[in-house]
């Protein structure tokens, strides 16, 4: 891709401001180490058979002490066991889980990333376009609706899903297909507990290989025996950065699907957000290039 072609420059500027403020981003090679190993193979549609091109886990090391010492990660981790895995199974939110949702939002709203989102650069960008609430309390309520409001993903059952569950925790469709699970912390925890088996990385179209210090990765894995042929997630970034980024893109359009190309740090990315009414259905980054190879 030629320099600047198709890139949303205004949005890239906002996201780079947030990137610089993401002080809770973990440092590759120091706070965590990943082992990319081999390139993942082809998986036929509907199949759960995949060649394992990675005998070892993706994460060879994570500084859990540092991870759990940061409020946003600690509150984020407390949310990961709050959901039923399969769609079609009605979610029942306890008072404790409801409180955990609010504690997480309160924690991320205290960070510089979210302060900028809610009060300065990014939020003004959204308010100026008439897309977000200008009052901080209203904005938190808006965030709750986008990420935590339950909706019916499987029309045969009750309210069985929400944006947070799908994107950050992951779920399965009738126990037969992996949906979501685009978060590195959840991936690490599931891998540590032997629920996730990393199968290898997915190269970009030009067949270039990723680096172990890349903060975005396209990958293949199995989760409780089900295979996701290709998934993508940020690596090492904070929960607040991901919430801010996907929230901004969610607000950009009322269309069911919003796809936008941005340059964040050294990464050329396509950010994809699907709407589910007034909430996020799914959202994820797709690596187009890194380390300036295509520039």
UniProtKB/TrEMBL annotation:
Keywords: Endonuclease, Hydrolase, Lyase, Manganese, Metal-binding, Nuclease, RNA-binding. It is an enzyme of class 4 (lyase). The keyword Transmembrane does not apply. Pfam families: XendoU. It comes from the Eukaryota. Signal peptide: none annotated. Residues 7-289 form the EndoU domain. Its cofactor is Mn(2+). It catalyses: ribonucleotidyl-uridine-RNA = a 5'-end dephospho-uridine-RNA + a 3'-end 2',3'-cyclophospho-ribonucleotide-RNA. GO terms for molecular function: hydrolase activity; lyase activity; metal ion binding; RNA binding; RNA endonuclease activity. Its EC number is 4.6.1.-. SUPFAM superfamilies: EndoU-like. Monomer. PANTHER family: PLACENTAL PROTEIN 11-RELATED, URIDYLATE-SPECIFIC ENDORIBONUCLEASE. Belongs to the ENDOU family. This is Uridylate-specific endoribonuclease.
